[in-house]
Amino acid sequence: MPKFGWTMEEGTVTQWYVAEGEQVTKGQPLFVVETEKVNTDVEAPATGVLATIIAPEGSLVPVGELVARLETDAAVRAAASPDPAATGGSVGAAAAPAPAKSDALVVDAGGIALSSVEKRTGDRMLASWRDTPMVTLTTDADADAVAALREDTPGSPSPTIIVTHLAIGLLNDHPRLNAQRNDGQLLPSEDVNLGFAVETERGLVVPVVPQATEMPLEQLAEHLAELAAKARDGALELGDVANGTFTVSGLGHVGIDGFTPIINPPQTAILGIGRLRREPVVREETVVPGWRIWLSLTFDHRAMDGAPAGRFLKDLSSACTSALTSDS
User: Fold this and answer.
1) If pLDDT is split at 50, 70 and 90, which confidence band does 77 have?
2) Distance between CA atoms of 43 and 68, rounded to whole angstroms?
3) Contact, 163 vs 313, CB < 8 A?
4) Among residues 123, 129, 143, 281, which is most buried (max CB within 10 A)?
5) Does a cis peptide bond (omega within 30 degrees of 0) precede residue 154?
């Protein structure tokens, strides 16, 4: 089983393209691996005959374990796995784990079977919660300008997308939030590679919009919509989920105000965006109707203290008040 991404520990074989006994050529797609992020074709590492499939469809296989035996000639059989970080298939002879179906929502004896995506996402979130000293800051921002911008922008982008665009524009001034933590060092990014959480039938996935810093609001909305559709169709590619530097999660569409999002390692922060809501507000000693929105920033306390994280949230709140994306 090859390794796709530094957090991958196991993958599910969801489809075999080749049957036992069939001839294959080097580079030919052999099978599909499902990780917590994407479905990926694994290619044959050599030309030969697929002698034995060790891991049938539905098998959950740890990284580095063997999934099949490939005969490259009459006398030599692949007996060892190549580097699991390589993009080629991992072949040889070994006993495989018991098959475990991954996608279907199955109710059995009163319980709901989690998909492989849900299991792996849960494991990663548990590891993040256990290993990262996370702090969540919240603020309730004036959002009249956000609501107005939504009405004035073609396509009426969601409040989550508008606030995301505002946040992207601020991150250059807050480099500790747009960074990855590695071996006790912070690696700030020169650009914002924006991850955003998408709900799918298989579970939560986080596609990435690369180089989002200079992207106008309408272009960002289009790109997010395209990646969200690919995520829900199970069509994301490895490049669609790689190298995120800052993540946004929105729950306004299900009526949630504030929440505590969990950091996606090795990133140092994640922004939670609540619903846009109408309520009485005080302006110049007068109670009038106004728009408000909750913002929740979770940060890694190893990467920064509360004050610099709070300054980003304060700047974002001010940006929501003035809707700085009006020039886009």
Assistant:
1) very low
2) 12
3) no
4) 143
5) no
Among 267, 220, 260, which residue's Cα sits nearest to residue 242?
Answer: 267
- Give the tokens for residue 288: 């009038």
For residue 37, what are the CA distances in angstroms to 11, 31, 169?
10, 17, 27
Task: Fill in the amino acid letter for 200.
Answer: T
CB 2 within 8 A of CB 33: yes
- Cα separation, 176 vs 164, in Å, equals 17
Q: How many CB atoms lie within 10 A of CB 27?
A: 12
Secondary structure letter of residue 104 according to DSSP: S
The domain ranges of the chain are 1-102, 134-327
Distance CA 119, CA 121 (A): 5
Mean pLDDT of the chain: 84
Q: Residue 94 and residue 62: Cα distance in Å, rounded?
A: 12
Residue 161 has pLDDT above 50, yes or no: yes
Q: Apex CA 130: angle with CA 295 and CA 98, to 5°?
A: 115
Structure-model confidence comparison of residues 25 and 74, the more confident one: 25
Amino acid 166: pLDDT: 96
Q: Which CATH superfamily is domain 134-327 in?
A: Chloramphenicol acetyltransferase-like domain (3.30.559.10)
At 161, is the secondary structure helix, strand, or coil? helix
pLDDT class for 73, splitting at 50, 70, 90? low
CATH number assigned to the domain covering 1-102: 2.40.50.100
Q: Is 82 helix (H, G, I), strand (E, B) or coil?
A: coil
pLDDT in tens, 105-154: 444 445 677 776 787 788 888 888 899 999 999 999 999 999 999 999 99
212 and 190 in contact (C-beta within 8 Å)? no
Q: What contacts 253, CB < 8 A, 6 or more positions away?
A: 158, 160, 275
pLDDT tens per residue across span 203-249: 889 999 999 998 999 999 999 999 999 999 988 888 898 899 999 99
